[in-house]
UniProtKB/TrEMBL annotation:
PANTHER family reported in the protein's UniProt record: BIFUNCTIONAL APOPTOSIS REGULATOR
Protein name (database record): E3 ubiquitin-protein ligase RNF8
Keyword annotations of the record: Metal-binding, Zinc, Zinc-finger
InterPro entries xrefs: Znf_RING, Znf_RING/FYVE/PHD
Amino acid sequence: MKETKTKENPEQQEMMDHQEKLDAQEKLLQEEKLEEMKTLLKEKQRTQELLCKKLQEKEVQMLQDLKRLQEEKDEQTLDRLEELCKEVAEIEDDIQILLERMEVMQKDEMEIEIELAKKKLELTNKLKAMQEIIQKVKRGAFNTEGKKQYLEQELDKIRKAENDAPESFLKAKQEVLDKFEEPIETEFQCSICRELLVMATILNCGHTCCRSCIVKWMEEKNNCPICRTSITSQFRSSVMDNIINSWLEIKRLR
Ligand SMILES: [Zn+2]
Ligand SMILES: [Zn+2]
């Protein structure tokens, strides 16, 4: 066919050749392009695969991260929970301590009330006892006051008699001495030293002693040397002291 064509039309033949060349070139180009495209495609595929792999890796990483985060979160939550539990326990301890304190305080309050009631009763009893003693002492003082006045009157009589006449004085004095010696020496005798009272001290039971005698006595004992009553109080009696001093003065004049 070619031969024929060439023979028939050289221009046409040339054109056809050119066309062929063009076709071949185009084919080559297309093939190249195809190859290029294939390469590109392959590359794209590789890239995609790579990307995919990377994505998968990333996913795995993310999953791991997520898991780790979850665990951390759990751990943190656990830690926080533990802390909270501790705090709650501490608060509970505090409350327990407070409750115990309150209980103790209530107990103390009750004890204090009981103690106060006891003290009140004790004080009331003491007050009663003291009032009784005061009355006793007052009565005693009244009696001794009377005696003192009487003694002083007698002493005056003696002094007067002394001035008036020695004989009548001596007689009067002897009368007083005879009359009072026994009762005074007995009534104003110390229960401990058996001598006339020195700084007469009345005990709550009504018995009397010298101040120094009872102080010494109480270094060892705490009850009356006569009646054994427990000593709860003592009173100094200046009235008794005065009577004794007056009596001693009378005796000195003898
Ligand atoms: Zn005495
Ligand atoms: Zn007594």
